[in-house]
Amino acid sequence: MIFTEKPKEIRVMFTPFRDGLQSSFGGKVRLADILPAMEFAAKEAGIRHFEFGGGARYQAPFFYVGEDPFVCMDKMREAVGPDVDLQILTRSVSGVTLTTQRLDALDLQAKLMAKHGTTWDRNFDFMNDVDNLVKTGQPIVDAGMHHQVCVSMMGLPFADENVQNELKLTKEQRQTVVELIENLPDAYGERYRGSGEGYKQCVQLLDNRQIATFKSKLGKLSERKTGLLPTKK
Question: Is the pTM higher than 0.85?
Answer without folding.
Answer: no
